[in-house]
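Journal club prep — side note

Before the paper discussion, L.F. wants everyone to see what a predicted structure for a comparable chain looks like in token form. Sequence:
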Amino acid sequence: MNTRNKLGRAAGIVIAAAGIVALSLPGEASAAGILPTCTIQTVDGHFLTAVDGGGHTTNAIQSNRTVASTWEKFQLVPAGDNLHVGLRTSNGNYLTAVGGGGQANADAIHTNATVLSAWEEFRITFEPTLIQTVNGNLLTAVSGGGRTNEAVHTDATLSNFGSWEEFQLACVYV
């Protein structure tokens, strides 16, 4: 990885980390109800997309977009335990790890939840950037990204993750 890519990745991690930390601290942004909005990029540079902005139960997430627009933005909503967040789509729905994680099929992630419950809670870790379900499984961008169906699975674990489980987050307050 060249120096420019390293600096870009480091800046993205710092921005995302600041957004996550702000969720658990009483600050002006949190007090005003402003939450970070993030894009999530796969290892091959594609963005995760909530199809139609959310509301689906099969093939609800795609990973084939090369430019981030509305459907590629997710708001990080604190789950209340200072550890987990909900990933809210542009339509106001939440990503759901079906069964809390552990799925390797087109139905692994839904985007039709309207309430942040246990299966809608994710933990984001950095260095590397991983998105963990409430059961401890990891989101996987199948084939590293670039897919329109069966794009995301939730069956990887911390003991067997690889580059397909690594993401890059870029967050802003809007």
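L.F.'s comment for the group: The two ends are 31 Å apart (CA to CA). Keep this in mind when we get to the figures.
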